[in-house]
Amino acid sequence: MCDGVDRSIVRSTLVGALFDAWGAFDLVLEGVTPADMVAPWGGGSAFAWTHGHVANSIDAWLNVRFQGLAPHPVIGDHNLRFGGSGRAEDWPAIARGVAEVRAATRRHLEEVAEADLDRVIPYDGSLVALRSTGLALRHAITINLVHHHYHLGEIATKRAQLGHAVPNIAGVRQRLPRADGRGWEG
N or C: which end of the chain has fewer CB within 10 A? Predict the structure, then answer.
């Protein structure tokens, strides 16, 4: 179990990997004080901003586009998108927003099977190449999975440079995907 998710109910290995990334992201932030969460580090973004930023992508791609939900009132803020300020003033609001965005995504994705990942929806966003092909659910999940790991590495690196004890995230996954691709073992 990671991020409070029982892997035995997840039907897609890719979805399980995204949920694992959420757990790893939470783990790499473990022990950071609220003051340190909102401080800009090394001329870059605050940890809280980065946490909200990756949730912004989840919200925009998986909740708004695939589920037709309204953007989250905090996480949907344009400041949390690529090119945003990197500043975060209200860590508790961002933390609540991340939890709410993940919960909405989790409710949808827990029921997604491997075949469902091929669903394609029209795309009118900033990635011009996707406008002609549409956005596949598999692509949206994969991009968000990679996005989480990219920023997870960024946070771990900054924390190490600051002299923080950085949690080992290598063993976050508690279960292995089943050989038949239907859920998780262990």
Answer: C
Residue 92 and residue 112 in contact, taking contact as beta carbons nearer than 8 Å: no
Let me know the angle formed at the C-alpha of 144 by 115 and 140, rounded to the nearest 5 degrees. Answer: 40
More confident residue, 94 or 183: 94
Residue 127 has, within 13 A of its CA and on its CB side, a CA count of 12
If phi > 0 it is left, if psi is from -120 to 50 it is alpha, else beta; for residue 153 that is alpha
The two three-digit tokens of residue 96, written as one number = 């609540």
- CATH architecture entry for 7-176: Up-down Bundle (1.20)
Coil, helix or strand at residue 177: strand
Structure tokens at 148: 């989480």
> Mind listing the pLDDT tens digit for each residue in 58-112?
999 999 999 999 999 999 998 888 877 878 989 999 999 999 999 999 999 998 8
Structure tokens at 5: 């998710």
Query: Rg of the Cα trace of the chain?
Result: 16
pTM of the predicted structure, to 2 decimals? 0.85
What are the distances in angstroms from CA 114 to CA 44, 63, 183?
38, 19, 10
Give the residues across from 40 on adjacent strands. 46
CA–CA distance, 85 with 42 (Å, rounded to integer): 14
